[in-house]
Design brief:
This protein has 110 residues and is an alpha+beta fold. 34% of the residues lie in helices and 26% in strands. Strands 2-3-1-4 form a four-stranded antiparallel sheet.
């Protein structure tokens, strides 16, 4: 499998596993909630187009998601996370990721 963000010429990018708990968003009044969700989806699509937000999964049974994010460094990731409209209402956990020696060897032959 080719590492997409590195194949685009951003070899210095770091990968991060980001968990975002959105439970508090659901306490907002309905109109505020709808507006926030609309703005968050728009910003999320922008981050995906930029290659910052690479993959995103829901966590079944929870009001949370987990995503694979790429940024030049932790400061750049923090800027991206701060740009999320949902940020004031979200609890965010970030784990920096490093290449495992097994995957550094390249793909297995089929």
């Amino acid at each position: 499998m080719i590492d997409e963000h590195r194949s685009k010429g951003t070899e210095t990018a770091m990968d991060f596993l980001v968990r975002i708990d959105t439970s508090r968003v659901h306490d907002l009044p309905a109109d505020d909630h709808a507006d926030l969700v609309r703005r968050e989806r728009h910003r999320g699509r922008e981050l995906m187009a930029e290659g910052v937000l690479r993959r995103l999964w829901r966590l079944p049974g929870k009001r949370a998601n987990i995503g694979l994010w790429s940024a030049d460094d932790a400061d750049a990731l923090e800027q991206a996370l701060d740009s999320l409209p949902i940020r004031p209402y979200a609890d965010i956990e970030v784990t920096a990721l490093a290449t495992h020696p097994l995957t550094a060897e390249g793909p297995l032959p089929r």
